[in-house]
Amino acid sequence: MDGSLAATTSTTSSISYAGLGANTVIGRHGNGNTSMDFTGTIDDVRVYDYALSASEILDIYGKIAHWKLNETSGSSASDSSAYGRSGTVTGTSTWSSAVQVALRG
Q1: Tell me: the pLDDT tens digits for 48-78?
Q2: pLDDT digit string (tens) for 28-46?
Q3: Burial track 69-81 (b if 16+ CB lie within 10 A, e otherwise)
């Protein structure tokens, strides 16, 4: 979700529909087992016949960079996305290890 690789796996297997019905269904069980239906809203579904690269996934979701701003010194903010678009810190900025959160309700 945040553009960072969580895991990978390789397989030569294919999807087997044996005993599971012959339909691919989005949001509900293929055999009508309603205890396995998805409850919520599905906004976008895409099916590919190949594995997407990290940059293809970023292109789909419109992410152009991810600056965590967790550096402790220097004048560069590293981009942790697949694009590697580091930024330059300018002005009178200083790095801090403290985390501050202000919530206003």
Answers
A1: 878 888 778 878 877 788 888 888 888 888 8
A2: 776 667 777 778 777 777 8
A3: eeeeeeeebbbbb
**Farthest CA pair distance, the chain:** 66
Pure H helices in 7-101: 54-61
Question: Containing H/E element for 88?
Answer: strand 87-88
How many whole angstroms separate alpha carbon 79 and alpha carbon 87? 7
Q: What is the pTM of this model?
A: 0.43
Quote the tokens at residue 59. 């292109």
pLDDT at 11: 74
| SS3 of residue 70 by DSSP | coil
CA gap 87, 69 in Å, rounded:
10
Tokens of 1: 């979700």
The torsion angles phi and psi of 67, rounded to 5 degrees, stand at: -100, 110
